[in-house]
Amino acid sequence: MNNKFRNNRKLYIGALITGMMLFLSVIGLLFTPYDPNEMDSSAKLAGISLSHIMGCDNFGRDVFSRILAGLGTTMTVAVGTVFIGIVLGTVVGAYTGYYGGRLDEILMRFNDAVLAFPALLLALVLISVMGPGKYNIMVALGILFAPGYARIIRGEFLRCKNLDYVQSARLMGASDMRIMFVHILPNTFNVMLSTIAIGFNNAVLAEAGMSFLGIGVQPPDSSLGRMLAEAQSYLFLRPGYAVCTGITIVLLIIGFSMLSEGLENNA
Amino acid sequence: MLDVIDLNIEFHDHITPETVVYDFDLHLEEGEIVGIVGESGSGKSMSALAIAGLLSRKHMKKRGQILFDGVDLLSCSRETLRKYQGNDISMVFQEPMTSLNPVKKIGWQVGESLRLHTSLNEDEIRGKVLKMLKEVELPDPEAVFDKYPHELSGGMRQRVMIAAALICAPKILIADEPTTALDVTVQAQIISLLKRINKETGTAILFISHDLSVIKKLCGRVLVMYQGRIVESGDVNEVFSNPAKEYTKKLIKAIPKMEKLTLA
Q1: What residues are paired with B34 via a beta bridge?
Q2: Where are the domains of chain A?
């Protein structure tokens, strides 16, 4: 067991990168070198220097401070999205997997219908109905991610529900609810864990994509996607702005996907 | 205490319904050990699962009655059934490797019945569980309490299962081939354990096996099943010394005997 962990390089590197990014985003909540929204007209599009280690943007705002703050926003949206998705998915998946029958068929076909849409497009529709903003993105993306989780959890419940220990719990007189959430659910955690890690990955990408298109996080709040959108106008003038923001997103994604793969190998 | 009258079990999950148990009758007194013996597919496990109330109510049709202290377990509400399950009727399965939840600690699993049927607090449950683990002759109950199933051997797991089944002092213990997956020495230990528990607590045991020698060692009465029907029943010694049916004779002949092997 211990050896398996030690030999799992992906898990290690993934955990390291993710841990670093999480650390940075927590720091960003508590402290940033400059106020991320403070404009300094004398430092407009300033290059990389000791006082601004990643330079400044077109309004003279410190890019490093904005990345720290944006990381926090992005992480918050990712956590909220995955949380909403996993709770909805678990309830639907547990119910359909455990009971089966007609409701299972109906819910799963509904599931298929949601899955058939391109996720980002459906998110655009939902956002255009609910209006843009940090919390609306969480809800929209959470609803979109739920069917995928539901399907995975349903499969696990189908696998577990006829095993001897579930029968034995039933024989002890445990109610269906107790069997579902106390006896079976903990057995799905290993599968759930890697799904959650890859879910973070997708959530970060989706949030960045939507903010890039201007329907996600609204100014003056910073988010990695928004910053990338702003940076593209100055790509040739100050490539550092776009590169720094881009690398942050890339690191986040690599961290999460390696973590997910590592967890999968370990399960 | 337990009366099974004319139990018929029919599967309805295929296109054509299929009957697997015909006219099963059983009477079980308090403190009695009754064996059911038969080959694979003879319906012995199905009858046991029906008594335990574990058969799906949707996909199977059951006729007849299973009366426990006068209450018909086949037609009572789920809540009533659940009240009996674990508290009055419990069961030990064949495969000790899969019958424990891999992600829960032993102590928690053994105490689950108490949690469901009594209002004891966690400390009291812990005390009872430790006592029960000692009762089933597990070495170092304190250590076993905090272990996970994968840390125990097959024989130890089966002891844990027996402890979990007996923690509420049930009136009936259904043992569905509890020794089949174990090696012979452990088998003998489990059987003497069951015998001792039966004597001390008066729990009636319905023991299912395809191994006649095990039945002979443990049970007072035996039912022989073949193709879904009871073909012979009676006192163990009577059946063994004077089998009435051809099938029973064949079964008895199939018991391996200690013989000296001569190398050709």
Answers
A1: B206, B221
A2: 6-30+56-266
